[in-house]
Amino acid sequence: MKLFEYEAKEILKKYGVKVPKSVLVKKGEDPIEKMKQAGLEPPVVVKSQVLVAGRGKAGGIKMAKTWDDVKRLVDELFDKPIKGIKPRLLLIEEAIPHEVELYVGMVIDRSERKPVILASKYGGMDIEEIAREKPESIIRVHVDPFIGLKGYQARLVGKKIGLTGKALSNFAKFLTALYNMFMEYDGELAESNPLALVGDEVIPLDARLIVDDNALYRHPELAKEILEESGEYTEWEIKARKKGLAFVELDGDIGIIGNGAGLTMTTMDLVYEFGGKPANFLDIGGGASAELVKTAVSFLVEFPKTKKIFMNIFGGITRCDEVAKGIVKALEELGKLEKPLVVRLAGTNEEEGREILEKHGIEAFVDPIEAVKRLMEL
């Protein structure tokens, strides 16, 4: 799960990191009033809060030198999509005069099974180009997760990007805080770009944190994120998440339900192969209950893009009779299926599952290709 810049900075503050003074503004709020309440005056930087990289190049970060600039830029940025996403929040923060911009981040190196620190003396908007053109300028230091980041390692990284004296000491403290946040929040990525060098101080002008979705149960306060504010999800993807469904909206008109991501994607490929276009990806996972199946079928019946539904189930952990019971529950709840449904059932308890469906007038195929051909005939 990606966090907004303001959320990552709030977490960094818990680790003793100094961040620029700021206010968060929603559409319709008075930015001038909020700034005055927080004791914040121009010059400030107005930033779109969207969960994509490259906001600066896309025009999502602007300098406001006057109160009039603030008002104008807030209106402008709320209406400006960044890589297709319109911001629902803007961060207005004090402008920090600086001349040196550094880069520091960390990810998991899966081949080494360790976190790896990445740092460069060339931070800012062009870090990707610099990484391609001057790969030697990116410092890489692995950290043993059982031992943690030691002081000498943090100072070594700082020395390699040209820091000395008190600036080196402050950088090492920041890097330690960033590492601790990364580990304690089960990070997939944590970074600051740019990390400004102001005298001997280092100040994160930007911050990013991506948390492993599989660890969200350990961070319930993050799991309460308002999906609507992210701008990453469509209306129906948000509805699906609230129902506990793994759903992605696509451009076609054939609803797809599978159990397991691999089978669901293969099912989509089959539909494409025979001339159809999937309206969605919906994975009910292994061991799906009848209740979850009912929810998935009912959801695709309601989903306006869907004209017909193809359900492809291979029962391993998932029991075909449970799937059939879920389909019947959906039929009972809806009264009748207003959209054609084709089902392929194979695997655990498939005979029982087919019997249940046949009693309710639904044919269950064993061969997925035969099932797709039948789907395309409808």
Explain what the structure shows:
This protein is an alpha+beta fold. The protein folds into three domains: 21-95, Dna Ligase, domain 1; 100-223, ATP-grasp fold, B domain (D-amino Acid Aminotransferase, Chain A, domain 1, 2-Layer Sandwich), CATH 3.30.470.20; 233-377, Succinyl-CoA synthetase domains (Rossmann fold). Helix content is 38%, strand content 24%. Strands 5, 6, 7, 8, 9 and 10 form a six-stranded antiparallel beta sheet that branches. A four-stranded antiparallel beta sheet has the order 1-4-2-3, covered by helices on one side. A hairpin with a 2-residue loop joins strand 8 and strand 9. Helix 5 packs across helix 6, helix 11 (290-302) crosses helix 12 (320-334) and helix 12 packs parallel to helix 13 (350-359). The longest helix is centred in the middle third of the chain and has 20 residues, at 165-184. It starts with a helix and ends with a helix.
For the structure shown, list the relevant keywords.
single chain, 378 residues, alpha+beta, Dna Ligase, domain 1, D-amino Acid Aminotransferase, Chain A, domain 1, Rossmann fold, 3 domains, 6-stranded antiparallel sheet, elongated
- Sheet-strand content, in percent, reads 15-25%
Per CATH, the superfamily of the largest domain is Succinyl-CoA synthetase domains
Q: State the low-pLDDT regions, or none.
A: none
What coarse outline follows from CA principal-axis ratios? elongated
CATH topology of the largest domain: Rossmann fold
- Sheet with most strands: 6 strands, antiparallel
